[in-house]
User: Fold this.
Amino acid sequence: MPFSFRTVLALAALTFIPLLMTGQAKNSIFNNERTRSMSQRWELNTLTGNGTFVITPYKPVYILPLRWSSEPNGKPVSGNPSPEYEAENQNLNNLEAKFQISFKVKVLQGIFWGHGDLWGAYTQKAHWQVYNATLSRPFREMNYEPEVILNFATNYSLFGIKGRMAGISFNHQSNGRAYPLTRSWNRIIAHAGFESGDWQAYLRAWYRMPDDIDDNPKICRYLGYGDATIIYSRGIDTFSAVIAPNFSFNRHMKGSIELSWARTIKGNLKGYVMFTHGYGETLIDYNNLQTTVGIGVSLVEWL
Assistant:
């Protein structure tokens, strides 16, 4: 069937809203042109603090109108043997659109003897089969990820690398779907942040909380027990890598890698390229091995 007016309107919005956002006021969550340090991003001292209940950037915000997958996972498999998880095969396109929004809000500051901040955060990732007329262009997968984060500023150096922050969070991630496609998990995550010149790194390790009914058994076998985000920013270019191995150094080794490159076009608007390989790009794909390449624009980066 031909493109409907709603589809054309939505695609136009995905294309042109970022252009309009470049003229927003200084306190817009998308205005991170000068947010180049971890101290600024996480308000680690009194000079970089915005106070409480101010929306600020968290993870990258981007739109990829073109995102290609080698294995679009038309028949997701839960791994749970219950018949409730048996999904029908869908004729998915290799090409779709992908976007992510993410923000955080400081709820309490200066707690635990003046050293800690409590944040609430939210990230949402969407995969849209917009080019699939046969299936009426559905949203294939939406992942919702609220978090509560307790963060502490740190101040130490090791081999020239500065330890800037550390903390712990409660993380819930789900796709909000019914059987047979429901997927979710809860984690307790410990994190630490480091800086050195134009480089930044975030290290995370998590414990998956047990579920009475497991939508995605053995998910940690595919996504591992932690990840490392490494960012390099110089001039108008920002490069990042998110690496999540399962640390099985044998034939069972799995995990994922995500590489991205952002280059400033104008103001906060950046051209954006993303490459991924491995498992777990979305929850429905937690045990699906695929390679993806996407191109689009971003408004917010890791820094």
In short: The domain at 5-300 is CATH 2.40.230.10 (Outer membrane phospholipase (ompla); Chain C). The chain is about 10% helix and 50% strand. The CA atoms of residues 22 and 268 lie 6 Å apart. The chain has one domain: 5-300.
